[in-house]
Specification:
Blueprint (H helix, E strand, L loop, with lengths): L10 H5 L4 H10 L5 H14 L5 H18 L7 H5 L7 H14 L11 H8 L4 H11 L6 H6 L1 H8 L4 H13 L6 H6 L6 H17 L8 H10 L3 H14 L4 H17 L3 H14 L4 H15 L4 H11 L8 H5 L1 H7 L5 H13 L6 H12 L4 H15 L10 H13 L6 H14 L4 H12 L11 H13 L7 H8 L9 H24 L4 H18 L8 H20 L5 H11 L9 E3 L15 H19 L7 H6 L29 H12 L19 E3 L15 H7 L1
Antiparallel strand pairs: 1-2
Helix pairs in contact: 3-4, 4-6, 6-8, 7-8, 8-11, 10-11, 11-13, 13-15, 14-15, 14-16, 15-17, 16-17, 16-18, 17-18, 17-19, 18-19, 19-22, 21-36, 22-24, 23-24, 25-26, 25-27, 26-28, 27-28, 28-30, 29-30, 29-31, 30-31, 30-32, 30-33, 31-32
């Protein structure tokens, strides 16, 4: 072309301008388009948008929008020329300009403030299409805070506009501008006869209440009216979401919405609305046994469906139940058990999550045994998830569910040997942590370490390197619990140990040093009879033969540790007949005699005499109740009156008289007997019976958790449940 690349297009270029369709065909011919092709197309469109002809400019803006939206081409240099099209009297040109601005502008675009005047004119225009285009730009990601602040008055007037189309779009735009628009105007749309306007307003309030529901509690009467009268399922779903956030703020609201939600659940055929009703009942109406029973019946329909999506929703709904309603899980135990073998991976995971949520200290060993047996028959991915879930449950909150620490040690060993186990680092950390915390578990840990070390097949599995490293450390640190020290040295020095990485082999050599020192110390205390002397000689000969090749290893750490051990062995041989032999052994034993502590731990604090520590701190409410009441009263009295107090007082009849409601801090309960309420442990026991496919879970003799705990982690304190804040004066005026 003869035209300049930086100036406006020539007349010939304007006459033969390519359309958007021509550009798309050219790009598809070079699919995927190269950077050079995109650069040429963008340069051509930038040159064309400088033309004085509005039609040429509009086509160029259309092509730049396409290149920016689909190929990420930077078109910020043409932002001013896009703004030149906004005042166009041709609606098509105006529409293309607003589309280009919405998709290519950002809040940091320098020329964006220049659009304020034209946006204000279009928002005030009697033409609905022009005002709708302006609203779309204001509601897009291109709008800045300054632009929204300057146009807030116009948008507020459109929220209550008599024109339905604009009122609908203004309600949607108010979501992005919620910090600048008064809610009172948007509240009026809840009473609009136009279902689309109501739907738009409900969507906005649903999104806003997700961040902070408290300011929208006075609108509960309007939401309730929509819940009762609406025939639109999606509007009802949004209203239920809002009520699920408002009900925890005002307990009396739960009794008000219980009957309408149950009515919806009985008569609705839409599964989406039925699930939302169930979710709201499980999360907000757990004190209403009649509603819970109805929801559980509906969940039974979901679980018995042939649709995998509905079965998944049924399991997800059961996981929302509080612990006091585990009888519902017991009623559906067969379905939950079968779901572990479902073909759908999401259903299997949800069933596993539901089972793990029911674990208690009493049933942890039984459920773990069944799940480990099930993991043997599962695919590798799901088997790994089962093993991870079992380990997480057994180690939760510093082993709070473990009654028998020896069982925990055997569980960690069984997990480590599972072919699909992929948490070797976590197992290593837990083995060491248990050894440092519980003194009674150390003999069992030493036995487990010996079993892991003497198994040569484990050395060829790179995934178990960390577990074997922990086993070697345990074998050396607690060598006093080993039955045969020479056997332990043979396991640590076996030739297949060369398959381990340098870090693990270094721990092996350190364990050899510790086991040797303990062996020699024991033999010295036993006055070294002939048998013991022969065992010591075998140990020394084995160490010399195995470590001598490592003195020339390329790994400096291995070479250093091997030379240290061999030097100690040769010193022992030289001093064996000398009087200082015993002192050398005692000196080496003293080097390893210090007690190790839990990382970042602290010593257990001894309770002073005369102080009684109580588990139940409910008396604090009686002691501090007056102070909390005075503090809340003083803060409430200083609060300014609400600007919407008159409107809120108009809704005071929404709630029943105060005497008919339970106290503000008292959970509402119905008079039923709980509908076959069963304790959590019996529900899980019934579930376990159905989980067993082959074999039965062996009964384990439970021992009391050892009272001696060497170290505790810092900051492991039980969190008290937060106290419910008192409602603000405007809300109290409405409720009371």
């Amino acid at each position: 072309m003869a035209g300049s690349s930086s100036g406006p297009p020539s007349l010939m270029e304007t006459l033969f301008q390519r359309s958007l369709e021509d550009l798309i065909k050219a790009l598809r011919a070079d699919s995927p388009p190269s950077a050079a092709v995109l650069a040429r197309a963008a340069a051509e469109a930038r040159r064309e948008i400088r033309a004085s002809d509005p039609s040429t400019k509009a086509v160029a803006a259309q092509k730049l929008t396409f290149l920016c939206a689909l190929h990420g081409v930077d078109v910020s240099s043409s932002a001013f020329h896009v703004l030149e099209l906004l005042p166009s009297p041709f609606f098509l040109h105006k529409k293309l300009a607003y589309l280009a601005a919405s998709l290519t502008f950002s809040p940091s675009t320098p020329v964006l403030p220049l659009a304020t005047h034209q946006l204000r004119k279009d928002l005030s225009s009697p033409s609905d299409p022009a005002a709708a285009l302006a609203l779309e730009l204001v509601a897009s990601a291109a709008a800045s805070a300054d632009l929204a602040r300057d146009l807030s008055a116009e948008i507020s007037s459109l929220v209550s506009s008599p024109r339905p189309r604009l009122r609908l779009k203004a309600s949607a735009a108010s979501l992005r501008l919620s910090s600048l628009l008064p809610v009172d105007r948007l509240f009026l749309n809840l009473r609009s006869p136009d279902p689309r306007t109501v739907s738009s307003a409900i969507n906005v309030f649903c999104e806003l209440s997700a961040a902070d529901p408290k300011p929208y509690l006075p609108l509960a009467p309007d939401f309730f009216r929509i819940l009762v009268d609406s025939t639109n399922n999606w509007i009802s779903i949004k209203v239920l979401k809002i009520f699920s956030r408002l009900a925890p703020l005002e307990p009396r609201l739960a009794r008000r919405i219980a009957d309408p939600i149950c009515d919806h659940l009985r008569r609705c055929s839409a599964k989406s609305l039925a699930f939302e009703c169930v979710r709201t009942i499980f999360t907000c109406l757990d004190g209403f046994d009649g509603a819970i029973k109805l929801a559980v019946e509906k969940i039974g329909e979901f679980l018995g469906s042939e649709d995998a999506n509905l079965r998944f929703l049924g399991l997800a709904a059961l996981s929302l139940l509080r612990p006091i309603h585990l009888w519902a899980v017991e009623e559906n135990r067969e379905v939950v058990a079968r779901s572990l073998a479902d073909a759908d991976g999401n259903i299997r995971r949800e069933a596993l999550r539901l089972i793990m949520a029911m674990i208690t200290a009493e049933n942890l060993p039984s459920i773990s045994a069944i799940l480990l047996d099930h993991a043997q028959r599962s695919d590798p991915d799901f088997a790994g998830e089962i093993l991870a879930a079992v380990m997480a449950a057994s180690c939760r909150n510093s082993y709070e569910l473990v009654l028998d620490v020896d069982w925990l040690v055997s569980l960690l060993g069984e997990l480590a040997r599972h072919p699909h186990f992929a948490m070797a680092e976590e197992a290593e950390r837990r083995l060491v942590d248990v050894a440092l915390r519980f003194t009674d578990a150390r003999p069992e840990l030493a036995r487990l370490a010996r079993d892991l070390l003497i198994d040569p097949s484990l050395l060829g599995n790179p995934a178990l390197t960390e577990v074997l490293t922990a086993a070697a450390w345990l074998a050396g640190e607690y060598a006093e619990f080993a039955r045969c020290h020479v056997e332990l040295l043979e396991a640590l020095l076996q030739p297949r140990a060369a398959l381990l990485p340098v870090r693990a082999r270094a721990v092996y050599l350190q364990a050899v040093f510790k086991v040797l020192v303990f062996l020699l110390g024991c033999r010295r205390q036993d006055d070294e009879d002939e048998d013991d002397d022969g065992e010591s000689n075998r140990a020394l000969a084995l160490i010399e033969a195995s470590l001598d090749p490592l003195t020339e290893s390329r790994a400096v750490e291995l070479q250093d540790r091997a030379r240290n051990v061999l030097g100690f062995v040769r010193s022992l041989k030289e001093a064996r007949a000398a009087p200082g032999y015993g002192g050398l052994v005692d000196f080496a034993a003293a080097a390893f005699s210090a007690e190790l502590v839990v990382p970042a731990g602290s010593v257990v604090v001894v309770v002073p005499d005369g102080i009684l520590l109580r588990d139940d701190l409910s008396e604090l409410d009686a002691i501090l109740g007056s102070e909390v009441l005075e503090a809340s009263s003083s803060s409430s009295s200083s609060a300014p009156p609400s600007s919407g107090a008159e409107r809120r007082r108009e809704q005071e009849l929404f709630y029943l008289p105060k005497d008919d409601f339970p106290a503000a801090r008292e959970a509402p309960r119905s008079d039923g007997d709980g509908g076959g309420h069963v304790g959590g442990s019996s529900a899980v026991d019934a579930l376990i019976e159905k989980l067993v496919v082959t074999g039965t879970a062996g009964k384990m003799k439970m021992k009391a958790r050892p009272a001696v705990v060497v170290k505790l982690d810092e900051g492991e304190k039980k969190k008290s449940s937060p106290r419910r804040s008192r409602p603000s004066p405007p809300v109290r005026d409405l409720l009371l």
